[in-house]
Design brief:
The chain is of the alpha+beta class. It is built from twelve helices and twelve strands. The chain is globular and about 75 Å long.
């Protein structure tokens, strides 16, 4: 069924590429900080049994910072990109990059170190010719460096990330927030056309499919297609976040999508709401208890299992998945650190090739 989800991926890409805020940052993709990104990456590598790579990454980051290779970047603040309204006749994507800086002159020196020579500023805006032959414009404001391929995006007063970053972006390691209802009609039409093209491709019958298999696959494909079209037409907000919880020893992925009030999609989401305190879809498993239940009687095999998995600590051995509705559709996935280590241990060193 993975292929059927391609519909949603294609539509989501088109939506995010065309979200159009009215001079407000309706679509924002951000990372909490360089420091958090590096330290959490090291943590994930270590719990996945990649301690050597984690140490290599730590050494590399230490060399970059102690050697002042990242001088000019404030590594403790959020960075990312946001999208603004695209004007007619402008082929450049309406994307603005924001990077927290220590001092503008230090950041400019950092650019020179990587082979990018900034021009003399005109009205506070620098131009940078990249090795790929593209020109990027740069402006310093609010303690940040803002970059864009369209100079007009930097001409007026720029927003301060401290003010416009939603709480979910500040809280999570990685976060995306978007206003789907701000899409222009043309962008929605383009997304729906793409969904229709994908559906037409999936209607082609596979050589080894039976009638029953084909009918089932098409029923699922059509259902996903219809929901995605409804989401493009009637969606309001979309939030996707990823976080590393070291205290709880887990990784979490959360998706939240709401619909325009009064729409058919809103009615469906509300109908899918939790029944009492139990979500319509809820899955939770304790891997430690499963291993205990199915533990071998052979003492030698038990010792090998304990050696391999190191024992499963209660509370850090779970996989949780919840899908519920109500005011918005929400999907929550949480995987404990010990489960990640278990999964990594079962993957062949050659990646299964």
């Amino acid at each position: 069924m993975v292929r059927e989800w391609r519909h949603g991926i294609v539509a989501l890409v088109l939506i995010l590429a065309a979200c159009a805020p009215a001079q407000a940052q309706v679509t924002v993709l951000s990372v909490r900080s360089v420091d958090d990104l590096m330290s959490d990456t090291q943590y994930v590598l270590s719990i996945a049994g990649q301690e050597d790579r984690a140490k290599q990454l730590q050494g590399l980051f230490g060399a970059l910072t102690d050697g002042k290779r990242l001088q000019g970047i404030d590594t403790k603040k959020p960075f990312g990109v946001y999208l603004v309204e695209s004007k007619e006749g402008n082929d450049q994507p309406p994307v603005v990059i924001f990077i927290p800086v220590t001092k503008p002159e230090e950041f400019l020196e950092l650019l020179k170190q990587v082979g990018v020579e900034p021009s003399k500023p005109e009205k506070g805006i620098y131009s940078l010719d990249t090795p790929l032959g593209q020109t990027i414009y740069l402006k310093f404001e609010n303690g940040h460096a803002y970059g864009a391929m369209n100079e007009d995006l930097l001409a007026s007063k720029l927003p301060n990330p401290t003010d416009f970053l939603p709480a979910v972006n500040r809280k999570n390691l990685l976060a995306l927030t978007a206003r789907i209802d701000k899409l222009p009609a043309d962008a929605k039409k383009q997304a729906i056309v793409s969904l229709e093209e994908q559906l037409a491709q999936d209607k082609e019958r596979k050589e080894d499919e039976t009638d029953e298999q084909y009918k089932l696959r098409m029923a699922v494909t059509q259902a996903i297609h219809d929901v995605m079209v409804m989401f493009v037409e009637e969606g309001q907000d979309l939030t996707l976040s990823f976080n590393v919880n070291r205290d709880g020893g887990s990784l979490s992925l959360d998706l939240r999508a709401s619909a325009v009030p009064g729409s058919k999609l809103a009615a469906r989401i509300k109908e899918f709401g939790p029944a009492g305190v139990t979500a319509p879809v809820h899955f939770e498993v304790s891997v430690g208890k499963v291993l205990t239940m199915f533990a071998p009687n052979n003492a030698e095999s038990q010792a090998e299992l304990k050696k391999l998995f190191g024992g499963m600590e209660a509370g850090k051995d779970k996989v949780k998945l919840t899908l519920a509705g109500g005011e918005a559709a929400e999907l929550k996935l949480e995987v404990s650190s010990q489960v990640i280590r278990l999964g990594a241990a079962l993957i062949p060193e050659d990646g299964g090739n």
